[in-house]
Amino acid sequence: MSERPIVVETHNLTKVYGDGAAIRALDGVDLTILKGEFLTVMGPSGSGKSTLLNMIGALDRPTSGRVIVNGEDLATIKDVDRFRARTVGFVFQLHNLLPALTARENVEIPMYGQGMSEREMRERAEYLLELVGLPDRMHHLPSQLSGGQRQRVAVARALANDPAIILADEPTGSLDTQSGAEIVDLLETINRDQGTTILIVTHDPKVARRTRRILTMRDGKIVDDHRVESLVKEDLRELARSNLGKLLLSGEKERVLAEIGLDHLEGETAIESLRRLLQRLGE
């Protein structure tokens, strides 16, 4: 039994949309997330991953089942907006910053109504913007910031009330490769240094492999839940699920060699030719 507190629990969580030909966006999901975890939810479009995120973030209500966040059953909470503001931080694909407010003012927004003075809010926002690497951009409007900088402001805003968990929905989806990698670097650093629990929804395997636990969803169910032990093991996991992996597992060596045009070779010659082929494909 882990000594770390449980931050999120879902029990037989179900969400059905529509009548008649109803769509089961979530189909009996059981999930436990411990304090300090850094994990990813992956899956094809329509698999239920964003719906699960919305349930955990109290943005939507389940058809049945329970969601418990930071020890509170969401079904029993009367002031959901207040609970959400002080318990959950959100980072969306599009930063959702208010264009007329400066970076600092955007970070202050979740602090309103939390019993903080204006000075406390200002100092907290300034500290968080320094934390995400934007000490010289506090008074800039979103239009004066790059896409990566705007997303950094969104991360700072998500941290405003020291939430129990940050939910990031495709946080790198609208960014270029370098900016996206920098946002993942930032989230990883916050998780490591601040101990903040972070759950990311993504389509990008490269993002998922940076976290320490990967959940895979399909048809409203969690079909795989594993710890990221090493990048090599993740490569092997992907290979096992690929067409090549299935052929190798079935023992059809001749068919594998035929598929890549090496069936006329044998032994060390075939292995060396395969190595050269892999080298060319990897360039």
Short description:
By secondary structure, this protein is α/β, with parallel strands linked by helices. The protein is built from 11 helices and 10 strands.
Task: Please count the helical segments.
Answer: 11
Strand content: 15-25%
Topology-level CATH name of the largest domain: Rossmann fold
- In total, how many domains does the architecture comprise? 2
Under the CATH scheme, which class of the largest domain? Alpha Beta
Low-pLDDT stretches: none
Q: Taking all residues together, what is the mean pLDDT?
A: 88
The H-level CATH homologous superfamily of the largest domain, spelled out, is P-loop containing nucleotide triphosphate hydrolases
The order of strands across the largest sheet is: 6-7-8-3-9-10
Structural class: alpha/beta
Ends distance: 46 Å
